[in-house]
Write a structure and sequence with these properties.
This protein has a domain of 254 residues: FAD/NAD(P)-binding domain (3-Layer(bba) Sandwich), CATH 3.50.50. Helix 1 runs parallel beside helix 15. It is globular. The relative contact order is 0.14. The model has no long low-confidence stretch (mean pLDDT 95). It has 17 helices and 23 strands. Strand 1, helix 1 and strand 2 form a beta-alpha-beta unit. Strands 1, 2, 3, 4, 5, 6, 17, 20 and 21 form a nine-stranded mixed sheet that branches. A five-stranded parallel sheet has the order 7-16-8-9-12, covered by helices on one side. The protein has a three-stranded antiparallel sheet with strand order 13-14-15, with no helix packed on it. The structure holds ligand NA7. The site of ligand NA7 has 21 residues, from helix 7.
Length: 565
C-alpha cells in the first residue's frame, strides 16, 4: 500500500467530530492505516449536531433504525434504540458508544475551533490555525463541519439589553437539561422566537413542563407540521430490527432521500378524489416522514396537487386547535405544504389549547424591540419574560464556512460578498470562490481553487437522512485518498469544466420544484444575515441514488473531472 510523501504534521486533517467526522476518521484509519489523521473539534465531546442541540424535545425525525451507522456490526449488535424516533440524549449516548467502540477519541482533539485555513501553493498543503493560535499542517483537509451548525440570532434591536436569560436553541445551557430544566425553569415566564423544526420541538416540550406560568410563542410564519407518531420500542421489536438491519439500510439506500419513505408514483389527477383522500389519510396516519415524502409524485411540482394536499393537512390542524381564530393563525397561508422542510411534532398544536401558552402573530404585531424585561410588539404591548429562547435557525449550508477564513490557491478566499456582515468582512472580495453564498463544486465534494479540500455533507450534496449520505460520501473521499496514496499524488482539484457541469446539473435538478418559490434555509434565505436575501440552489435535489451513480461513474472513469498530480 502506498503512502503520501508528507513533510507536514498530518496527512489528513478532519474538521469536526459529528457523525461525518467520526465516520471519516474511522474509514480513513481502517482503509489507509499508514496515514496520519487528526480530527479538530470545537466542542468538548463528539456528536456535532447531537452535541450542540440539547434543547428540550430535540429528537430524530428519521426512524432511529435507519439513522444509525450501518458499517460496524459490533455496535449494531450491542445498541438497542428505545424509541422509534430517538431523543437527543439517547442519540448522543449512541454516538459516544460508537466513539468508544471504534476508539475514535485518541485521534480527536476537542475544544479546538479552527479559525483560518490557508493553502500553501509552494508546499501543497493546508495550514490551519485554531483560536488559540496553534498551527496544524496537512496535505488534505476533510471538512465535516455540518450544514446547520452556524446559529443565527434574530436581527431585532435590543437583544443585548435583555436582563433575563437569553440563548439560541443550539447553545441551550447544559444545566437546563432533563429534570434539572424543570426545576430551573419553574416559575419563569418563557418566550420563544421561531417556529421552525427546532421551535416546534422546544415549544412542545416547554408547554408540558410543570410550573411555567407563561409560554409566549413569537411566530413570524406559521409552519406546516404533522404528527411524528413516535412509540417506544419493546426489547422484541429492537431485536427484530437488529436482525433486519441490512434490509433496513438497504431500503433507505434505495430511496431518493435515504429515508424509509418515498413518493407514490401516481400523479394526483390520475386517481379519483376518493382514492386521493384515502391515500392522504393513509400516509397521515403513518409514523415519520411518510406524510411529506409519501405524497403523490407531483405534490411538490404541481400547484393544484399541492393546494389539495395542503387543504387536507390544514383541516387536520384546525381539528386539533380549540379556538378557530388561533387555528387559522397556526395554518400557513403563504406557502403550500412540504415547500419548506416539514418538521414532525408530538402535541405541538395541542400545546396552544393550554391556558398558559400564548401565540403572538408577528405578521399582525411585529416585534419592535427586546427590552430588559421582555419583548415589545408594534401594538405597544410589553410581553414580560424571564427567559428568551431564540429558535431562529442557522446560517445554513455555505453559511457554515463563513466563520473560517478559508483561502485556496493564490490566496483566493472561499467566501465573499460585498453585503456580508462585520464578522465576514475579512473575507469580503470580488474574486471569492463562492460569491454571495453561492457554491461552486464538483460532486459537492471538491471545490475549485481549493485543492485537497474534500467536503462531507457540503453544499451540492443530498441532505436527506444524513447518515446515509455521510457513509456514501466518506467512501468516495476514502477512494480519492487511496488513489493519492497509491500514485503518490499531492494535488487534487476539480477542473473548471467539471465544476461548471456539476453546478449547472445541481441547479437543473431543482427545476420545477415549487419550493424554489419559498424563502427558507433550503433556498438559501436567512433574513438575519446580510447578503442572504436572495434565493439560491445549494442542495442536490436529484435523488441520492442518482448522486451515487454519478460519483461512481466519476471514480470508474479514473476520477474524471479531477486534476490529480
Ligand atoms: P428554521 O427552520 O430556519 O426556523 C427558524 C425560525 O425562526 C422560523 O420560524 C423563522 O421564521 C424564525 N425567525 C428567524 N428569524 C426571525 C426573526 N428575526 N424574527 C422572528 N422570527 C424569526 O430553523 P430550525 O432551527 O427550526 O430548523 C433548521 C433545521 O434543523 C430543520 O429544518 C431541520 O432540518 C433541523 P420564518 O418562518 O422565517 O418567518
Amino acid at each position: 500500500m502506498g503512502s503520501l510523501p508528507s513533510p507536514e504534521d498530518y496527512d489528513v486533517l478532519i474538521l469536526g467530530a459529528g457523525m461525518s467526522g467520526m465516520c471519516a476518521l474511522h474509514h480513513i484509519r481502517k482503509t489507509l492505516p499508514q496515514l496520519r489523521v487528526r480530527v479538530l473539534e470545537a466542542a468538548p465531546d463528539v456528536g456535532g449536531t447531537w452535541y450542540w442541540n440539547c434543547y428540550p424535545g430535540a429528537r430524530f425525525d428519521s426512524e432511529s433504525v435507519s439513522y444509525a451507522f450501518s458499517f460496524d456490526k459490533g455496535v449494531l449488535d450491542e445498541w438497542r434504540w428505545s424509541e422509534a424516533f430517538a431523543s437527543q440524549p439517547e442519540t448522543l449516548r449512541y454516538l459516544r458508544l460508537v466513539a468508544d467502540r471504534l476508539d475514535l477519541k485518541k485521534d480527536i482533539q476537542f475544544n479546538t475551533r479552527v479559525t483560518t485555513l490557508h493553502w500553501s501553493d509552494e508546499r501543497r498543503l493546508w495550514k490551519a490555525v485554531d483560536e488559540h493560535g496553534t498551527v496544524y499542517t496537512a496535505r488534505f483537509v476533510v471538512s465535516c463541519i455540518g450544514f446547520l451548525s452556524n446559529p443565527t440570532l434574530p436581527n431585532i434591536p435590543g437583544i443585548a439589553s435583555f436582563a433575563g436569560q437569553g440563548f439560541h436553541t443550539s447553545r441551550w445551557p447544559r444545566e437546563l437539561q432533563g429534570k434539572q430544566a424543570e426545576a430551573a425553569l419553574a416559575g419563569k415566564r418563557i418566550g420563544v422566537i421561531g417556529t421552525g423544526a427546532t421551535g416546534i420541538q422546544t415549544i412542545t416540550a416547554l408547554a408540558q413542563m410543570p410550573n411555567i406560568p407563561s409560554l409566549t410563542v413569537f411566530q413570524r410564519h406559521a409552519t406546516w407540521t404533522v404528527p411524528l407518531r413516535n412509540t417506544p420500542l419493546t426489547p422484541d421489536q429492537a431485536e427484530t430490527y437488529r436482525h433486519n438491519a441490512d434490509s433496513i439500510f438497504g431500503l433507505a439506500n434505495s430511496t431518493p432521500t435515504g429515508f424509509l419513505h418515498q413518493a407514490d408514483p401516481h400523479k394526483t389527477a390520475e386517481l379519483s378524489l376518493e382514492d386521493r383522500l384515502a391515500h392522504y389519510e393513509r400516509i397521515y396516519n403513518k409514523p415519520g416522514m411518510a406524510k411529506w415524502l409519501g405524497a403523490f409524485s407531483d405534490t411538490y411540482t404541481d400547484r393544484a396537487a399541492n393546494e389539495e394536499y395542503s387543504q387536507f393537512i390544514a383541516q387536520k390542524i384546525k381539528d386539533r386547535v380549540h379556538d378557530p381564530g388561533l387555528a387559522n393563525r397556526l395554518v400557513p397561508t403563504d406557502h403550500g405544504f412540504g415547500l419548506r422542510r416539514v418538521p414532525l411534532e408530538s402535541g405541538y398544536f395541542e400545546a396552544f389549547n393550554k391556558e398558559h401558552v400564548h401565540l403572538v402573530d408577528l405578521k399582525e404585531t411585529p416585534i419592535q424591540t427586546v427590552t430588559p424585561g421582555g419583548i415589545q410588539t408594534a401594538d405597544g404591548k410589553e410581553h414580560p419574560l424571564d427567559v428568551l429562547v431564540y429558535a431562529t435557525g442557522f446560517n445554513a449550508i455555505t453559511g457554515s464556512f463563513v466563520d473560517m477564513d478559508i483561502r485556496g490557491r493564490e490566496g483566493v478566499p472561499l467566501m465573499g460578498s460585498s453585503a456580508m456582515g462585520e464578522k465576514e468582512k475579512r473575507n469580503a472580495g470580488a474574486s471569492a470562490v463562492w460569491m454571495d453564498y453561492r457554491p461552486r463544486t464538483f460532486l459537492g465534494i471538491t471545490v475549485p481553487h481549493c485543492p485537497n479540500l474534500f467536503m462531507v455533507l457540503g453544499p451540492h450534496q443530498p441532505f436527506g437522512n444524513a447518515p446515509r449520505s455521510i457513509e456514501h460520501v466518506v467512501e468516495v473521499v476514502v477512494g480519492l485518498l487511496a488513489t493519492c496514496a497509491d500514485k503518490g499524488y499531492t494535488f487534487v482539484e476539480p477542473t473548471p469544466a467539471a465544476v461548471e457541469d456539476w453546478t449547472t446539473h445541481v441547479i437543473s435538478c431543482s427545476d420545477g420544484a415549487l419550493l424554489n418559490e419559498v424563502d427558507s434555509w433550503m433556498t438559501g434565505v436567512n433574513t438575519n444575515v446580510k447578503g442572504r436575501g436572495e434565493r439560491s440552489v445549494a442542495r442536490y435535489a436529484g435523488s441520492l441514488v442518482e448522486y451515487k451513480r454519478r460519483c461512481r461513474a466519476c471514480q470508474e472513469a479514473g476520477w474524471e473531472g479531477l486534476e490529480m498530480k
